[in-house]
Design a protein that fits this description.
single chain; 341 residues; alpha+beta; 2 domains; 8-stranded antiparallel beta sheet; binds fe (ii) ion; M29_Exopeptidase; metal-binding
């Protein structure tokens, strides 16, 4: 991508990179809670790219933290070649929207539909849109993740966690829904996998300045997570540990404590907590950070590097980005103390 004079030019370039063509059926999808006026640049870009655009607004159908598709919405999206889903510029939003973990997303992808989420405001889209270098690096990282069997996470702060992923996918997330059956999210640059559900053993020390994204919280004092056979069995620490314990408890689901996915961030323009520009997209994409998550991990798409394909069904999902960690795959370091090797 080169220089863009307008916002809709940036979106148009993103759509062209996703191979949206004039003959394709494209959907502009949004929750009815999003202000329709905010959709103008996206609709403009979509209409310049495809000759067959419809706009669909969904109403909240289930008032829970996770939003799922009803059968009518699912059937409509399965008819599309390409879906552009605008989630507003202030993710996470105080209302439920469709996410990668929603029922319906894998079913839509299974119909060969390509799906691109956008959950950043205009300024952050300009900051985080993927360069050719990021695309190439993330694809290479996804191939490395795919062929990895064992993961070792460590830190000077006391983390020492071993996980197995034999046979699981290498998922890449970089805003490129260019092949049939891909779900992606614009502005991200990260790779992830779902480790085997009972494989993680050891300790994770979450440090001040790390984040618990769905809780909307920055960690204030160290949290020690003891993990046995894939699940957190003990949470130790102070104020932040208590907040985490309470959040996990409220779902009343033992799977909330299970490891969901793990991987690393690649985006050179992402910022960390404490920056006024910080968004959850930054937290998941910050170059050299590690993202570990707990809860659901079943989302999967037909495309080779899209989705994680675990077996942990769970009502909750919590993403925890970690700075200053080291990450090795089959004994080979890829991140050392927060820096890409
Ligand atoms: Fe996640």
């Amino acid at each position: 991508m080169g220089e863009f004079r307008t916002h809709s030019q940036l979106i148009e370039a993103a759509l062209k990179r996703c191979n949206v063509r004039p003959e394709e059926k494209a959907v502009m999808l949004s929750s009815r809670i999003i202000d329709p006026a905010d959709l103008a640049p996206y609709e403009e870009a979509l209409r310049r790219t495809s000759d067959h655009v419809i706009s669909v607004r969904y109403h909240p159908m289930e008032v829970t933290d996770a939003h799922h598709m009803n059968d009518m919405l699912l059937a409509a999206m399965q008819q599309a070649d390409f879906v552009l889903h605008y989630r507003g510029g202030t993710f996470p939003t105080p209302f439920a929207q469709l996410t990668a973990h929603s029922r319906g997303i894998p079913e839509v992808a299974a119909s060969s539909t390509r799906w691109l989420d956008i959950c950043l405001n205009e300024a952050n889209q300009f900051r985080l849109h993927p360069s050719d270098e990021i695309v190439a690096e993330a694809m290479e990282a996804a191939r490395l993740m795919e062929r990895t069997n064992e993961i070792h996470l460590t830190s000077d702060g006391g983390t020492d966690l071993v996980l197995r992923k034999d046979g699981r996918k290498g998922h890449r997330q970089l805003g490129l829904a260019d092949k049939p059956g891909i779900w992606d999210n614009f502005g991200f640059a990260m790779v992830a996998c779902a480790p085997l559900e009972n494989s993680a053993n050891g300790v994770v020390v979450v440090e001040p300045g790390d984040a618990m994204l769905q809780m909307g919280a920055t960690v204030r004092d160290p949290i020690t997570l003891r993990v046995e056979d894939g699940r957190i069995v003990k949470i130790e620490g102070g104020e932040s540990a208590t907040a985490l314990s309470q959040w996990l408890e409220r779902w009343q689901d033992p799977e909330s404590y299970g490891v969901s996915h793990i991987g690393w961030g690649l985006h050179p323009n992402a910022v960390w907590t404490g920056s006024p520009r910080f968004t959850p997209v930054d937290g998941e994409s910050y170059r050299g950070s590690i993202l570990i998550a707990f809860g659901s991990n079943t989302t999967d798409m037909p495309a080779r590097h899209s989705g994680i394909g675990g077996t942990r069904h769970c009502v909750s999902h919590l993403d925890v980005p970690l700075l200053s960690h080291s990450f090795a795959v089959d004994g080979v370091p890829v991140v050392k103390s927060g820096k890409i090797v």
